[in-house]
Amino acid sequence: MWDGEYKAVADRIHEILSKAPGPKPKPQYAPPAANIAGLWEATIQFKVGSTRHSFYLDPKANQLRGQYTGRLIKGPLKGHIDGNKIEFTSTSRLEGTSLTYTYKGAINNDTITGSVDLGEYGPATFTATRKA
User: Fold this and answer.
1) Contact 116, 100 (CB under 8 A)
2) What is the mean pLDDT of each run of 10 residues along the chain (132 residues)?
3) Burial of 18 by CB count in 10 Å (0-12 exposed, 13-18 middle, 19+ buried)?
4) Euclidean distance between the first and final Cα of the chain, in Å?
């Protein structure tokens, strides 16, 4: 850098950073419509065939954490509750690849129904019921 160039560089950096967007606002969710804490058994229906998975849900206000268990994989899950709507994601490793399941559904008493996005493996539907 030549003598005095630091001022031009500093001015340009200040100009760019002063126009940067601020932090994203936190989403505003409706209070949970039901207590969904506990163990749930889910049937996932693919285009061809189905399977059973389970998840343990541990909500804190609108935030959701828990444990996901499939036939071959298990791992943590996280998401949120917005009124009677629920969304959560679980990512697990299997034979050198990551499997990500994103569930979106609606809570109705002791049943959750909706869709599950299996990433490169496409969409499916699911129905989950609370276990005692």
Assistant:
1) no
2) 85 91 87 93 92 94 93 89 95 80 93 92 92 84
3) exposed
4) 70
Residue carrying structure tokens 């005095």: 4
What pLDDT was estimated at residue 57? 95
Q: Which residues contact 75 (CB under 8 A, 6 or more apart)?
A: 67, 68, 90, 91, 92, 93
* pTM value surpassing 0.85: no
Cβ-contact 132, 121 below 8 angstroms: no
Both tokens of 70, joined, read 């499939």
- The torsion defined by the Cα of 58, 61, 62 and 66, in degrees rounded to 10, comes to -10
Are 90 and 79 within 8 A, CB to CB? no
Cβ pair 57, 79 in contact under 8 A: no
